[in-house]
């Protein structure tokens, strides 16, 4: 492991004003900790993000280790979701958002991967469960169908069942696959959305506060599920719950005002935070 900055390569051009802002902001900033992984699933180098002329992310370089859970924590508005959304180019859909730097998925720059393919390889689960207004079966079958993963109905049935089993939902829904998914409980809907993400065999799963709309019991079911999923998937999760980050992540990254302040193995970050901003946040002084 080592600190890394990497060479800057732009895939969306920022304006001279934005570059000047960036130059000012970088004078004093250096991330503490282990930015890189020996076995990265994704690498990000020198990421800057602007919404119009307001910079939301400053020069972030960070790897997602293969089959690790990386938690992104920090006060509201520090840029966690913005950074997460860079990883599958969700920010491309925001016209006034400009990103520079380089992001790679298993060695391929994501700027060279077609957006739809990228989003099938880097799946996403959102804060609020968002099932399609269709049956439970169709929610899962949709992705595999459009990506041509099933040759026939039997194949598709198998994919749907496997995804629901992996998401720990099969036993609860196997007898009613044709009912509307919107009739499931919030926790079940979130597991359905995880099953939907898994059904197209992504390499990475992004989760943006996946439990924030759930009660403690549903949260604990999703946390158990995430711990199981990391056997097979690389997961990057935004969370406001420090307990959740402690329980399930391998590494934790602390953001503050758009900068990656400190990143280290979770236990180390929580027990021996180095930067005073990390210490203050973990003590609950702000956030
Ligand atoms: N679509 C947008 N247009 C303009 N500014 C935005 C947009 N999305 C986010 N921002 C700004 O970028 C900054 C980072 O926001 P972001 O949502 O990434 O933070 P966050 O750490 O995920 O916050 P929270 O924990 O409250 O969800 C904030 O100042 C926010 O107001």
From TrEMBL:
GO terms for cellular component: membrane. Keywords: ATP-binding, Hydrolase, Nucleotide-binding, Phosphate transport, Transport. The gene is pstB_1. Pfam families: ABC_tran (PF00005). It is an enzyme of class 3 (hydrolase). It comes from the Bacteria. SMART domains: AAA. InterPro entries: AAA+_ATPase, ABC_transporter-like_ATP-bd, ABC_transporter-like_CS, P-loop_NTPase, PstB-like. Its EC number is 3.6.3.27. This is Phosphate import ATP-binding protein PstB. One of its GO terms (molecular function) is ATP binding. PANTHER family: ABC TRANSPORTER I FAMILY MEMBER 17. Transmembrane segments: none annotated.
């Amino acid at each position: 492991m080592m600190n890394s900055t990497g060479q800057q390569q732009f895939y969306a051009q920022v304006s001279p004003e934005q570059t000047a802002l960036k130059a000012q902001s970088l004078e004093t900033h250096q991330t503490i900790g282990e930015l890189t992984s020996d076995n990265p699933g994704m690498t990000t180098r020198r990421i800057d993000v602007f919404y119009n002329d307001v910079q939301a992310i400053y020069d972030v370089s960070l790897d997602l280790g293969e089959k690790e859970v990386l938690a992104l924590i920090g006060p509201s508005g520090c840029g966690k979701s913005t950074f997460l959304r860079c990883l599958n180019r969700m920010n491309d859909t925001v016209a006034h958002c400009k990103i520079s730097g380089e992001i790679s998925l298993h060695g391929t720059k994501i700027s060279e991967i077609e957006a739809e393919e990228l989003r099938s390889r880097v799946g996403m689960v959102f804060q609020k469960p968002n099932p399609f207004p269709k049956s439970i079966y169709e929610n899962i079958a949709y992705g595999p169908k459009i990506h041509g993963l099933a040759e026939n109905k039997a194949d598709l049935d198998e994919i749907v069942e496997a995804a629901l089993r992996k998401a720990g939902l099969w036993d609860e829904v196997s007898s009613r696959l044709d009912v509307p998914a919107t009739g499931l409980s919030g926790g079940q809907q979130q597991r359905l959305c995880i099953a939907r993400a898994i059904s197209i065999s992504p390499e990475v799963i992004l989760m943006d506060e996946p439990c924030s709309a759930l009660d403690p019991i549903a949260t604990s079911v999703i946390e158990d599920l995430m711990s199981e999923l990391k056997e097979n998937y690389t997961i990057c999760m935004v969370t406001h719950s420090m307990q959740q980050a402690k329980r399930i992540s391998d590494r934790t990254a602390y953001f503050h005002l758009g900068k990656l302040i400190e990143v280290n193995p979770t236990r180390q970050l929580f027990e021996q935070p180095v930067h005073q901003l990390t210490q203050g946040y973990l003590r609950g002084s702000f956030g």
